[in-house]
C-alpha cells in the first residue's frame, strides 16, 4: 500500500539535516492538515517544516545552477 504522504506536528524533525544526506524531497499532499516536506534519506523519510531556516537555505542552493568545478 502506498505510504501516507502526510506529516503530523509531532513527527516534524527539529534537527537540521545535513544536505549531503538528502536524496530527494517532496511536499506533502495538499489534502494534509499540516504543510510539510517529506525528505528522503538513505534510511527512510523525515518530515520537515518548510519554514525552517536551514531548509529555506537548502532550497535556495538547489535553485542555483550548479557551476562546474574546475
TrEMBL record:
What the entry lists under InterPro entries is as follows: Chemokine_IL8-like_dom, Interleukin_8-like_sf
Q: GO terms for CC?
A: extracellular space
Q: Name one GO molecular function term.
A: chemokine activity
Q: Which GO biological process entries does UniProt record here?
A: immune response
Q: Which UniProt keywords apply?
A: Cytokine
The highest taxon in the source lineage is: Eukaryota
What name has this protein been given in UniProt? CCL26 protein
Its lineage opens with:
Eukaryota, Metazoa, Chordata, Craniata, Vertebrata
Q: Which gene carries the instructions for this protein?
A: Ccl26
Amino acid at each position: 500500500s502506498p505510504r501516507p504522504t502526510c506529516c503530523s506536528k509531532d513527527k516534524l524533525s527539529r534537527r537540521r539535516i545535513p544536505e549531503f544526506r538528502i536524496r530527494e524531497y517532496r511536499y506533502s499532499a495538499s489534502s494534509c492538515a499540516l504543510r510539510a516536506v517529506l525528505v528522503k534519506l538513505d534510511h527512510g523519510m523525515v518530515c520537515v517544516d518548510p519554514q525552517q531556516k536551514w531548509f529555506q537555505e537548502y532550497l535556495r542552493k538547489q535553485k542555483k545552477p550548479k557551476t562546474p568545478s574546475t
